[in-house]
Amino acid sequence: MLDLNVLTQALGDLDEDQVMDMLKEFSEINPSESAALEAVAACQSGMAIVGELFEKGEYFVGDLIFAGELLTEAINVLKPVLGGGDSVVIGTILLGTVHGDLHDIGKNIFRSMSEAAGFEVVDIGIDVEVDTFVKKALEIKPQIIGMSGVLTLAIDSMKDTVDALKAAGVGAKIIIGGNPVTKEACEFIGADAYTTNAAEGVKICQDLV
Ligand code: B12
To answer: What's the CA-to-centroid distance between 150 and ligand 1, angstroms?
Structure first.
């Protein structure tokens, strides 16, 4: 039985061995998808502890980067139980962190969970210029474009990107994610959907296709 509080604290403590041992043991018992989603949420809560300790000056930039890698590693262990093992591609998502923003932990979680759910994800990285989004969208014609950002300035970058995609005639549905994203921001940006939760984002994408 996975103790979610212990998992959260282990991630907050950056105890890689404990996090990975717990998750490997958990995935071996073939858990349900909803139980795996609870484990993802517990890991994310651990990331919130990391953020708080950083803000208090107890953790440093290197710890944040390590936490991001640990979170990605953790989600990868859970990936096989997150999507039901279906190998059929249900749609293509073009994904990137918008220009000016270098944060990618949340984007990577959403990518892993979308891939686990059967999406093909074309990840064009961080600090993605407007033109790069437009060119790639015209080239691969995805059903969905996902934009990520955690800085306040990401909201303006998302708006610039959405305006340019629309001007170029790109018809894909657009979903935005990241901590500062709200309903109001979504309306301002002109996106089709928004979320601050990767699992909810995957469900929205499934509905969109
Ligand atoms: C880790 C971190 C970093 C790491 C990033 C490592 C990396 N590889 O990403 C490093 C150390 C590099 C960093 C740098 C900086 N950071 Co920083 N960072 C953070 C921190 C602690 C956590 C962010 C995070 O990863 N959260 C966890 C993820 C899982 O959450 P999330 O992104 O919201 O993602 C979830 C959902 O939103 C959703 N999602 C995300 N994207 C998408 C996309 C789609 C399509 C969908 C559907 C869903 C989805 O799924 C995820 C899982 O559910 C926050 C503080 C905090 N406590 O949040 C500060 C924070 C974001 N950083 C901040 C700042 C200021 C900076 C710097 C400018 C610092 C500096 N002075 O140099 C630089 C930025 C450089 C730049 N231009 O981007 C500020 C932002 C302030 C603001 N309002 O703009 C914050 C809030 C800290 C603070 N309180 O001041 N940072």
So the answer is: 5
